[in-house]
Amino acid sequence: MAKKSGILLSVLLAGLMIAGCDQLQGIFKTDFGTRSKTGQAPEAPKAVYGTELAKVNGEVITLESFDEKVKNLTALSPEIKLDTAEAKKNYLNDLITQELIFQAARSRGMEKKKEVREALDEFRKGIMARQLILDETRGITVEPSEIEAFYNQYKQAFAAPQEIRARQIVLPSEQAAKEVLIQLLQGGDFAALAREKSTDATASKGGDLGFVNRAEQFDKFNEVISTLDAGQVSPIFKGPKGYYIVKVDEAKGGEVPNLTDVLPDTNMTVYDQIKNGLLQQKQAQRIQDLTDKLRQDAKIEIKEELLR
Fold first, then answer.
1. What is the Cα 211 distance to its own chain's centre?
2. In this predicted model, what pLDDT tens digit does every residue of 20-30 receive, in sequence order?
3. I need a labelling partner for 264 at 20 to 30 A (CA). Which of 100, 184, 230, 293 fits?
4. Cβ(44)–Cβ(25) below 8 Å
5. Does the model's pTM come out above 0.70?
6. Structural domains of the chain sorted by starting position, each given as residue range(s) with its CATH number in brackets
7. Does residue 207 have a pLDDT over 60?
């Protein structure tokens, strides 16, 4: 019973979002004149386009509109499953309930309430603006050559983050650092020398920093380790605690994917992501151009002093 009530609540809450145009027109064109004994204004028969699925006091629900509502509702609430005949029958009953409530509200003159009229007007504006945007952006395409050009220019942005595991030896003077570096170049063990010579707290771990969090390191450190391959030892460089020598134990990531590679944690290829991004960019520019022209041609008066 709880599940059924949840679907009905979703239907009622989503009612305005997925209501048919015929229902909205019924509100905006309501006859405020003489009503029948049932309390409803007499209406001329409406032309029905589609397959009649149900009729509620003469108001037809078509199979086509029902299918569209199913699609919209499941898109709004993916947890609702309407993929069986029984579920669809329950949903149709919910729509009938919604229609009955709508008709009762109309019969009581709810459309005359100021807050209802204002809400419906705002809803109508939103629907019309959305449709205009859809019309304006329809037909915009992205060519393969544009995708390839974008990829070639920005391919490094698609590279996986580079992870570097490193060790360090920190010494109090440049001379002490030079002596240790000579021992390393002669084949000395980095971890052993770090334990023996380093003045940093990491000395007890053989200078092991683990995978380096670049945000916690100083700029010169990050600059140096980014130039080293796994197994390489750096020259001496100065830092906040003295003179540093670092060694990269492991480096992974940083590879640039191909256009056809699937991006991590997605089901999209690099090609698809670039295409979608460029399409959205073009659509946004089309709408920006439209609104700029509308503003240019319009007479707009604003009293900014009232904005307090």
1. 30
2. 444 444 444 33
3. 230
4. no
5. no
6. 2-112 (no CATH), 140-159+259-296 (no CATH), 161-252 (3.10.50.40)
7. yes
